[in-house]
Amino acid sequence: MDYTSRRRGQGGLFEGLYRVIMRRNSVYVTFIIAGAFLGERAVDYGVYRLWEYNNVGKRYEDIPVLGQRQSEE
């Protein structure tokens, strides 16, 4: 019984998350949707930067003579 009285006064990380995010369904669903959207954006940005870093000089934009026509003067 002494343990439970001490436990109620202290809130752990998961108990705090439960109180803030998971107590109401609408807040929880909003948190999941926003997290999925932001996570997708972060992964997309990271993969794009990694692909550009690995392909420097091999892309169409990096080759100066492709797609250019000589001017008629």
Automatic annotation (TrEMBL):
Membrane topology (UniProt): Single-pass membrane protein
Originating organism: Gossypium hirsutum (Upland cotton)
Family annotation (InterPro entries): QCR9 (IPR008027), QCR9_sf (IPR036656)
Pfam families with a match to the protein in the record: UCR_UQCRX_QCR9
Any single biological process term in GO: mitochondrial electron transport, ubiquinol to cytochrome c
Protein name as it appears in the record: Complex III subunit 9
Family of the protein in this entry: Belongs to the UQCR10/QCR9 family.
Described purpose of this protein according to its UniProt entry: Component of the ubiquinol-cytochrome c oxidoreductase, a multisubunit transmembrane complex that is part of the mitochondrial electron transport chain which drives oxidative phosphorylation. The complex plays an important role in the uptake of multiple carbon sources present in different host niches.
Chief subcellular location: mitochondrion
Domain of life: Eukaryota
Keyword Hydrolase: no
Keywords: Electron transport, Membrane, Mitochondrion, Mitochondrion inner membrane, Respiratory chain, Transmembrane, Transmembrane helix, Transport
Subcellular location: Mitochondrion inner membrane
GO cellular component: mitochondrial inner membrane; respiratory chain complex III
Xref: Gene3D superfamilies: Cytochrome b-c1 complex subunit 9
Keyword hit for Cytoplasm: no
Subunit structure: Component of the ubiquinol-cytochrome c oxidoreductase (cytochrome b-c1 complex, complex III, CIII), a multisubunit enzyme composed of 3 respiratory subunits cytochrome b, cytochrome c1 and Rieske protein, 2 core protein subunits, and additional low-molecular weight protein subunits.
